[in-house]
Design a protein that fits this description.
The protein has no helices and 16 strands. It is globular and about 50 Å long. By secondary structure, it is mainly beta. The strands form five sheets. A four-stranded antiparallel sheet has the order 3-4-5-6, with no helix packed on it. Strands 7-8-9-10 form a four-stranded antiparallel sheet, with no helix packed on it.
Length: 163
């Protein structure tokens, strides 16, 4: 990770242990995906701690009401896990017990009081912060839905694969 604090005039190398795909920030906490899991920084990206690993890869991180959501891939079980954190990314709780296990879960989003999960079986919705999930739109031609949100509008686009 490189960081610039002067509109790109100079750059500082702040993380060197592998690649990153995604990064989000909320209330001074940075989270990013990494080949080892999910990384967390509370000092503007100067130092990073691994907060989710379990032999996995960080797939996605999202800001949700009251915290963060993340998707990781476990290299041992060959499945993706969905989790949330309500303490700034320090600790994480699994919210995927009601979702069919799969290696290509693609996205987790929040709109209002609902969580939405792009899954190879379709789009699932939870009204209780991931305790239970209901399939609301079945998959199309063996594709997984990636989800995007603009305000209260949810966009879903079917893609091959899970990222």
């Amino acid at each position: 990770i490189f960081k610039s604090t002067d509109q790109g005039k100079t750059w500082k190398h702040v993380y060197t242990d592998g690649w990153m795909i995604d990064m989000v920030e909320s209330e001074g906490v940075l989270l990013c995906t990494n080949q080892h899991g999910i990384l967390r920084s509370t000092d503007g990206g100067e130092h990073w701690d691994l907060v989710i690993s379990e032999g996995g890869v960080g797939i996605a991180v999202e800001v949700i009401e009251g915290g963060f959501a993340a998707i990781t891939y476990n290299t041992e079980s060959k499945t993706r896990r969905v989790r949330i954190s309500s303490d700034g990314g320090k600790t994480w709780q699994a919210i995927d017990a009601g979702l069919p296990p799969h290696a290509s879960i693609a996205s987790i989003k929040q709109v209002g009081d609902y969580f939405f999960c792009g899954h190879p079986e379709g789009i699932f919705r939870s009204a209780d912060r991931g305790k239970t999930w209901n399939l609301i739109l079945p998959a199309i031609k063996e594709k997984v839905f990636n989800l995007s949100v603009s305000g209260k509008v949810i966009y879903a686009f079917p893609r091959s694969g899970g990222c």
